[in-house]
Specification:
Chain lengths: 307, 510
């Protein structure tokens, strides 16, 4: 038991940013937009969050800055793909490269300068309790991620706006002919996805390693994109998937620390596992091509209204 | 009593075309009024102006005695005008209820909406489960969603744009029942169609358009189908000419126990299909869309590779394992349903499109090099023989209108003189004159000894064209029957799947 609690705490820390970013991408994809720039938006969110925390010391402001920065770069993507009908795959890849470069440039003056980690949300009595910290020992983003799973599920399934968003992703031309603004709905969804990716990025300096390092998100944005497919565009499965990937990443940390049986497999292989799993999942899903994968029918297709 | 709707001198001009030229007619309350005309006669444009999608350049619309400008579809719905489109704007992955909710202008709580939907369905006998996903529904059921959506607004005028083109005869009869009930309740119906016997059976008045002009307003029950068709076309109607005393030769195409695997979620595979087509025979395959026609065409053309070499034979030669190129070399040519993107590449010139399917049969490629002269000559011949309206072999396929592209594609295959020709929807979206030309070309090809398979949803076309007829339902083919020895009712029952699966039977309201 004593061994298990720190493992769970690490697992939650690893899974949270992936889950938040993937939830944002899920909403964007449900509206029919495939944004492969999650990694780039996360990095921009990470540096924005870091700088805000560095100067103000207010982690909530830092998260908000991360959200704004992520949303701002997603607007570039939205303008190119939605207003100018550029290819979504190519633009998304470009966004990742752009975000990586921009964050490295902006972060250059801050390397090796530490910041404070975000404090737990609950009072110390609960948060530092050797047992109860497994439930109450986390800071705000962790609870936020759980709340968002439920909120997004409810939004997509139960609200009229959610229905319109799904309709736009399912058949853009029909939605347009009924009188909904396809481009407007998609802008909103992409910007929401950008804000979530920004928050997810800000979690890295605020929750995990309290300093700035170039490309500190280390490909987690790609895992988030794969996770959306893995979860068949369902928020609850996304939760399960994020924790599954988080578990693999936690194993890697324990293997590095020389943790018993785990050390049999070299730590490099552990480190590669989430990415190998991502590839395996994508291959499996491509093989299973029936519609039970639940993909939005217009995913990745630019919308160009007739006449 | 004032007219429900009156059009006075409506004119609409598009660049280069006068789509509606001074059209005037009126619709009385409770009247079922047919709007009749060929493709391009201006029916759709006229209706779009009534529904507020377009604005007339001149003329006025009078609604219930008041002059009105209908600015957009929302304004039309507010007046009480409902419309059921030919192509449904439905969301396949959503439920019936969600689809209807999306189309409503007012925000109604889901539970209340469901109650209202159920009330309308019971009143008109339109049975449908509101929680079914649209993808699982038949075309007739999908149309019911659109009708229910229009009826929820309590319309005073319902516009139906070619509603029966995809329905079985039984479904058509049910639809007519619903429309008659509506009309009896005082709702006017504007019924667009080119199917004359339907108009005779259903409508009180018919307005005939030709080339944008109103030709005649008549009582369809007092006219014959032929007289209305001639008004519609503006000339005498050409009948298909068959050589007298035609005899069929030996079996050419023999298909035995042809099956395909299920490839997509909404895709219907064919299951143990067997039939024989003799030299000189035109074999028709009827059926409601989505019953395995696509899989059957792909399996015959070679797009879906078979596993049994004897499943398809021509003159006894097994083709079952060959791909499309191999089958074309042995005389089997095919025309798929989708013109642009499947039968032809829109961005390619007509000449390049000819090379794509005729290269081997007509030696357009030597040692891997394209003989573009031969391709141009051949394409020119297709354009001339089939009266394709195109600038020349260099125009792109995408620049042609749907009907012209269809004529080109049919011509490209027919002039290759295939031993066996398989075509799907040969005259879909083609006007009556061009359709007659395509039908005649098929009959002539058969007279030269080719075996022809025609897959179509248009029963009238099959009955006029074919010697033998079978019905495909849920991937299975019925017994082949001689045309002339089988009744329309019998075919309709087969199309509805009465002999087979239960799903289609549920679709028929008790």
């Amino acid at each position: 038991m004593e061994m298990l609690i720190p493992i769970i705490v690490t697992l939650v820390g690893a899974a949270t940013p992936i889950l938040i970013a993937a939830l944002g991408e899920l909403v964007a994809e449900k509206s029919g937009v495939l944004n492969l720039g999650v990694e780039g938006m996360m990095l921009v969110g990470a540096i924005a969050g870091f700088v805000a925390q560095f100067y103000t010391g207010n982690p909530y402001l830092a998260l908000l800055c991360g959200a704004f920065a992520g949303a701002a770069v997603s607007l570039i993507f939205a303008f190119l793909t939605l207003s100018l009908s550029a290819n979504q795959t190519a633009t998304g890849l470009a966004l990742t490269i752009f975000g990586t470069g921009l964050s490295a440039l902006a972060g250059a003056p801050y390397s090796a300068k530490p910041i404070a980690l975000m404090a737990p949300l609950f009072p110390d009595m609960l948060a530092r309790d050797p047992f109860w910290r497994v439930l109450f020992g986390y800071s705000f983003p962790v609870y936020f991620s759980f709340f968002m799973v439920a909120a997004i599920w409810w939004f997509l399934k139960r609200t009229r706006t959610g229905l319109i968003l799904r309709a736009v992703g399912e058949n853009d031309h029909s939605a347009h002919s009924i009188g909904y603004s396809v481009v407007g709905v998609r802008y909103a969804a992409v910007v929401f996805g950008g804000a979530m990716a920004g928050i997810a990025g800000a979690c890295f300096p605020l929750l995990l390693t309290p300093q700035w390092a170039e490309s500190m998100t280390a490909g987690r944005g790609w895992i988030a994109v794969a996770l959306v497919v893995f979860a068949s565009w369902r928020p609850l499965r996304l939760l399960a998937g994020a924790y599954l990937f988080g578990l693999v990443m936690t194993m890697e940390l324990y293997a590095k620390a020389g943790g018993g049986v785990l050390a049999i497999i070299p730590s490099e292989l552990w480190a590669a596992l989430p990415y190998l799993a991502t590839i395996a999942v994508l291959v499996l899903i491509s093989l299973r091509r029936d519609a039970s994968t639940n993909a939005p029918a217009c995913l990745g297709k630019p919308f160009m209204p007739a006449n | 009593m004032p007219h429900r709707l009156e059009l006075i001198g409506i004119t609409k001009r598009f660049p280069g075309v006068l789509a509606n030229d001074n059209v005037s007619f009126s619709v009385k309350p409770g009247e079922i009024h047919a709007l009749l005309g060929e493709n391009g006669a201006g029916k759709s444009t006229l209706v779009k102006m009534i529904y507020g999608i377009m604005q007339p350049d001149a003329g006025e619309i009078v609604w219930d005695g008041q002059r009105t400008v209908i600015a957009n579809p929302k304004a039309a719905r507010a007046l009480g005008i409902g419309m059921v489109f030919q192509h449904f704007s439905l969301f396949e992955a959503l439920t019936v209820l969600e689809n209807i909710a999306l189309g409503m202008d007012a925000k109604i709580p889901a539970r209340e909406l469901e109650a209202r939907i159920r009330a309308v369905m019971t009143q008109y006998g339109l049975l449908l489960d509101p929680h079914r996903t649209v993808a699982t529904l038949s075309v007739g059921e999908r149309q019911r969603i659109e009708i229910v959506r229009a009826l929820l607004l309590d319309p005073k005028l319902l516009i139906m744009d070619e509603p029966t083109s995809v329905l079985t005869p039984q479904e058509v009869e049910q639809l007519f029942e619903v429309l008659r009930k509506l009309a009896a309740g005082g709702c006017s119906i504007l019924y667009i169609s080119h199917k004359l016997h339907e108009i005779k059976a259903l409508c009180d008045t018919a307005t005939i358009l030709r080339g944008g002009k109103l030709v005649d307003t008549c009582d369809p029950k007092a006219e014959t189908s032929r007289s209305m068709a001639e008004k519609m076309i503006g000339a005498g109607l050409k009948d298909i000419v068959r050589a007298p005393g035609r005899t069929m030769g030996a079996p050419k195409l023999v298909v035995s126990r042809l099956s395909t695997k299920k490839s997509g979620h909404f895709d219907v595979p064919v299951d143990g299909v067997s039939f024989t087509v003799k030299a000189g025979e035109i074999f028709g395959i009827a059926g409601v869309a989505g019953n395995g026609q696509n899989a059957l065409l792909d399996a015959l053309s070679g797009e879906i590779l078979g596993e049994d070499k004897d499943a398809i034979t021509i003159d006894g030669y097994p083709l079952g394992l060959l791909d499309t190129t191999g089958r074309r070399k042995h005389g089997l040519c095919a025309v798929p349903e989708e013109r642009n993107g499947h039968a032809a590449v829109g961005d390619f010139s007509l000449s390049d499109n000819s090379i794509l399917t005729a290269r081997n049969r007509l030696h357009m490629v030597m040692l891997g090099l394209i003989n573009s002269g031969a391709a141009k000559t051949y394409t020119g011949k297709v354009i001339a023989d089939f009266a394709v309206k195109a600038l020349g072999p260099g125009s792109t396929a995408g620049s042609l209108s749907g009907g012209n592209l269809q004529k080109f594609i049919m011509g490209r295959e027919i002039l290759q003189r295939p031993t066996v020709l398989v075509v799907s929807q040969p005259t879909w979206g083609v006007d009556a004159g061009a359709a007659a030309a395509i039908h005649q070309a098929l009959v002539d090809l058969a007279a030269e000894g080719s075996a022809i398979v025609v897959i179509s949803q248009d029963l009238d076309e099959l009955l006029a064209l074919c010697d033998t007829l079978a019905v495909i339902n849920a991937g299975q083919l019925s017994e082949a029957q001689k045309v002339g020895e089988v009744s329309v009712e019998e075919i309709g029952l087969l199309m509805g799947g009465v002999h087979g699966t239960s799903e289609a039977r549920d679709a028929i309201p008790a």
